[in-house]
Amino acid sequence: MKEKAILMDQNTMNRALSRIAHEILERNKGVSQLYLVGIQRRGVPLAMRIADKIEQIEGHRPDVGILDITFYRDDLSMLAEHPVVNGTDMPFSVNDIKIVLVDDVLYTGRTCRAAIEAIFDLGRPRQIELAILIDRGHRELPIRADYIGKNVPTSHDEVIHVQIREIDDCDRVVLGDLNGEA
Fold first, then answer.
1. How many domains would you assign to the chain?
2. CATH of residue 113
């Protein structure tokens, strides 16, 4: 991937996550019966950071679950012969609660569809909302984010790479060219 632009640095990313935390609190009128669920991999540290920010604002930290959607993907056979499973950890019942799914990039909507399917296999939540750091458009399914850090119109030849300190040792969002051309 050839880097074309840095869309977010550490400070910009931090401000976007703070805004998302405030919007979640405002829309849900606090954190009562509200749970965050990070989609493996980069959605998990983002969900943890949003939960930390909610705790700073509200004085109460919502519980955070971890959701692995590997076996719910509709492209599983194309990924690898032995896909990497990172594991699901839901330390709460999903029945009759509000869930905010958290992920790094919203593109076609297929990851979110898989996540919703995985959650419904665990129970029946009252409501599911979606928080996304980057919405790049090009939806193939009727899915939209409720909370968006940044909208970035892209072409199909471009790629968004979110780097998270907990995984990549830095915080930034990079726009790249899939074909390697500048």
1. 1
2. 3.40.50.2020
Residue at 179 is within a domain: no
pTM assigned to the model: 0.92
Q: What is the DSSP string of the chain?
A: -EEEEEEE-HHHHHHHHHHHHHHHHHHHTSSTTEEEEEETTTHHHHHHHHHHHHHHHHS-PPPEEEE--GGG-TTHHHH-SS------B--S--TT-EEEEEEEEESSSHHHHHHHHHHHHH---SEEEEEEEEE----SSS---SEEEEE----TTEEEEEE-HHHHSS-EEEEEETTS--
Question: Alpha-carbon distance 45 to 42, whole Å?
Answer: 6
| 151 vs 158: CA distance, rounded Å | 14
CB 36 within 8 Å of CB 50: yes
User: pLDDT at residue 6 above 90?
Assistant: yes
Is the pLDDT confidence value at 26 over 50?
yes
Identify residue 25 by its one-letter amino acid code.
L
